[in-house]
C-alpha cells in the first residue's frame, strides 16, 4: 500500500467510490438488523460451497440473496471485494459488525423481560442501556482510539524526504483511510441506535446514560480526527517546506545577465503545488463540509507562513522579481481552487508584495512600502520593508528608500 502513488490512493478514496460503497454497505446493514434472530445467526456461518473468487462471490450474492437481504457473511464478502478491506489494519469493519451482532443478540434476550413492574422493570431498563453502553465503550476506547493513536504516532514520526515527495506521505494517507472507516463505523452505530435502541430509550432524553455515552463516543471520534488533521497538516507543511528548500535555486530569483525570461512557475513552485494539491484532494471525500473547510483554511494559513519565511531567504534581482511574481501567481491559483474566501486575501496581498521586486526607482520603492492599503492590513509596512531589503540593488537604493519612509519633507510640516 505504501508503494502506491498518491494518484492511485486518491482514486481509491474519491467521493464517488466512497459514497457508492457506503450507501450499499449501510443499506445491507439495515436489512441485516431487520432479519429474524435465527436467520441472522444461521447466516453468520460460511457455507463450504461458497465461491472463493471476488467475481464468483458477487455473482453468488446477486443470484442467491433472497428478497435482496444480505447476511453478515455476505457483508464480510463485500468488504473482501472492496478495496477498503485492505485499509483495515488499524480499524476493522468486520470486528465492528460482529460486535454489533453480538450486542443485538444480548438486547434481544434482555428485551424479553421488558414490561416487568417496579424495581424489576427499572433493572431491565438499566441492563438494556448498559448493554449498548458496553458496545460504545469497547468500540471507542478499546478499538477506535488505539487505532488513531497509532496513526497519530506515525504522522508525528514523519520526516520530510524525497521519497515522500514522489509517492506521497504514507502516514497522512493512512490517516485519511482511517477517517473513511471510522466514518462508516459511526454511521453503523447510528443506524443500530435508531433501529434497535430507540425501542427502549427516548433519543431526546439528555439525562439518559445511553444518550450521554453515545455523545461521549462521538466526541472521542471527533477529537481523534481533529488531532490527526492537525498533525497531518503539519506533516504536509513540513513536506512542502522540504521541497522548496531542496529544489528552489538562488539563480531562480537572481538569474545571470542576458538570461531570457520565462514567465512560468519555477520547478520548486510546481512541485510544491502538486504535493499540496494531491494531498488536499485526499481529504475531499473523507470529511463533512465543515471539517473540509477547516482543513483547507489551515493549509492556506500555514502555507502562507511557509512562503513568508521562504522568500526572505533569497536575494532577488529585478528580472528575478518577475519569477517571484510568476510563482506567487501559481500559489494563489492553487489556493483559489480550495474555495476558501477567508484565506484568498492573504495570497493576493503576497502577490502585491511581489511587485516590490520589479520597481525600478528608489523613490517608487519607498512609496510602495508606504501604501499600506494595498495589502489590506495583512502585511504591515515593516513586513514589506523586510522583503524589499532582499533586492539585489538594496545597497544602492537603501538611502533614498529610507528617506522616503522616514525623512521629513516640506509637505510634512504643519503650522499650528
UniProtKB/TrEMBL annotation:
Q: Which InterPro entries match?
A: Sec10-like (IPR009976), Sec10_HB (IPR048627)
Composition skew (Low complexity), residue ranges: 43-54
List GO BP terms, alphabetically: exocytosis; Golgi to plasma membrane transport
Q: Which residues form a coiled coil?
A: none
Q: Where is this region: Disordered?
A: 32-62
One GO CC term on file: exocyst
Annotated Exocyst complex component Sec10-like alpha-helical bundle domain ranges read 47-400
Q: What protein is this chain from? A: 3285_t:CDS:1
Phylogenetic classification of the source organism: Eukaryota, Fungi, Fungi incertae sedis, Mucoromycota, Glomeromycotina
Amino acid at each position: 500500500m505504501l508503494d502506491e502513488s498518491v494518484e492511485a490512493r486518491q482514486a481509491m478514496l474519491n467521493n464517488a467510490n466512497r459514497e457508492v460503497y457506503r450507501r450499499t454497505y449501510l443499506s445491507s446493514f439495515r436489512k441485516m438488523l431487520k432479519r429474524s434472530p435465527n436467520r441472522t445467526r444461521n447466516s453468520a456461518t460460511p457455507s463450504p460451497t461458497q465461491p472463493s473468487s471476488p467475481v464468483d462471490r458477487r455473482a453468488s450474492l446477486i443470484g442467491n440473496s433472497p428478497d435482496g437481504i444480505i447476511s453478515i457473511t455476505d457483508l464480510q464478502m463485500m468488504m473482501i471485494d472492496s478495496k477498503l478491506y485492505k485499509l483495515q489494519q488499524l480499524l476493522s469493519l468486520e470486528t465492528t459488525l460482529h460486535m454489533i451482532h453480538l450486542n443485538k443478540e444480548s438486547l434481544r434476550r434482555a428485551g424479553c423481560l421488558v414490561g416487568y413492574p417496579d424495581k424489576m422493570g427499572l433493572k431491565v431498563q438499566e441492563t438494556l442501556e448498559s448493554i449498548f453502553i458496553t458496545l460504545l465503550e469497547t468500540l471507542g476506547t478499546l478499538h477506535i482510539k488505539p487505532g488513531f493513536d497509532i496513526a497519530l504516532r506515525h504522522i508525528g514520526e514523519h520526516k520530510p524526504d524525497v521519497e515522500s515527495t514522489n509517492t506521497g506521505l504514507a502516514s497522512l494517507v493512512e490517516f485519511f483511510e482511517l477517517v473513511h472507516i471510522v466514518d462508516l463505523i459511526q454511521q453503523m452505530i447510528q443506524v443500530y441506535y435508531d433501529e434497535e435502541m430507540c425501542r427502549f430509550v427516548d433519543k431526546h432524553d439528555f439525562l439518559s446514560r445511553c444518550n450521554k455515552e453515545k455523545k461521549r463516543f462521538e466526541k472521542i471520534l471527533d477529537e481523534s480526527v481533529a488531532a490527526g488533521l492537525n498533525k497531518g497538516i503539519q506533516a504536509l507543511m513540513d513536506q512542502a517546506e522540504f521541497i522548496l528548500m531542496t529544489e528552489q535555486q538562488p539563480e531562480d530569483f537572481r538569474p545571470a545577465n542576458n538570461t531570457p525570461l520565462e514567465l512560468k512557475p519555477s520547478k520548486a513552485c510546481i512541485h510544491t503545488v502538486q504535493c499540496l494539491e494531491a494531498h488536499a484532494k485526499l481529504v475531499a471525500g473523507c470529511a463533512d463540509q465543515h471539517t473540509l473547510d477547516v482543513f483547507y483554511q489551515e493549509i492556506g494559513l500555514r502555507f502562507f507562513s511557509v512562503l513568508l519565511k521562504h522568500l526572505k531567504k533569497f536575494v532577488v534581482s529585478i528580472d528575478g522579481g518577475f519569477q517571484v511574481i510568476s510563482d506567487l501567481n501559481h500559489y494563489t491559483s492553487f489556493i483559489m481552487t480550495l474555495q476558501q474566501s477567508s484565506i484568498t486575501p492573504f495570497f493576493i496581498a503576497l502577490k502585491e508584495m511581489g511587485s516590490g521586486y520589479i520597481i525600478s526607482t528608489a523613490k517608487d520603492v519607498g512609496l510602495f512600502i508606504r501604501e499600506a492599503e494595498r495589502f489590506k492590513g495583512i502585511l504591515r509596512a515593516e513586513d514589506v520593508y523586510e522583503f524589499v531589503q532582499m533586492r539585489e540593488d538594496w545597497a544602492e537604493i537603501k538611502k533614498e528608500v529610507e528617506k522616503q519612509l522616514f525623512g521629513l519633507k516640506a509637505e510634512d510640516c504643519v503650522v499650528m
